[in-house]
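Lab channel / #folding
Pinned by the channel admin:
"Please post every new chain as: sequence first, then the structure tokens as a reply. Keep commentary short and put observations after the output so the thread stays searchable."

First post following the new format, from NK:
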Amino acid sequence: MKRFLLVEDEKIMAKNIAFFLEREGYLVEIAYDGEEALVRFAENKYDLILLDWTLPKKDGLEVCKQIRKESTIPIIMITAKGEIYDKVIGLELGADDYIVKPFDQRELLARVHVLLRRQESNLEGRMISPESTIHFEDIILDREKLLIIYMNETIALTSNEYKLMEILIKKPYNVYSREYLYEAVWGGMLMYNERTVDVTISRLRKKITDLTGKKYFYSIRGMGYSLGERL
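Reply from TO:
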């Protein structure tokens, strides 16, 4: 049975969401503030986190940031903030999806299903693949651990970062449009906004540059992105 951590300080809402998801066959544990969420996460194994933006003690963004330092677990931000700028902040810190209150519980369930299917697909792909790593120049993408490796140093990727990186590294120098990358990585989860792709590329670029000191991503004006400079 899949086990979720729901982090929501509005107790009635939290219990309603938990009750709904439990009827769908999931086990749901509730944390009512950010500090409790981090304690529970450290002590237990979860398959997905539903994380409210505004929380006592530590807000959802800080919780997301802390979790992303050590885990690629799927995270859905639940918040009343609906502006594109707020969505971008959540995505920059590693959230996989974003849903705005008030929302229909069936919509939340659909987003949960998409993330779980993607996670399972990634795991199955890594299990059946004869190669556990993909190489490009001096960097290595580790499919088993969702890591980028360079000169024996590593940096962890979120599930979206990994999937995006895998697309680009398999065919370096190819140029991919934002629309193609969005469809391949996010599917129908979010209303399309090119900033979603831009933010994830920016996050990947920073991680790889911090790790290697080199530039690997290139933006081609009016076309999209490539890994490796076009020849």
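NK: The CA atoms of residues 57 and 166 lie 37 Å apart.
TO: also worth noting, Confidence is low (pLDDT under 50) at residues 126-130.
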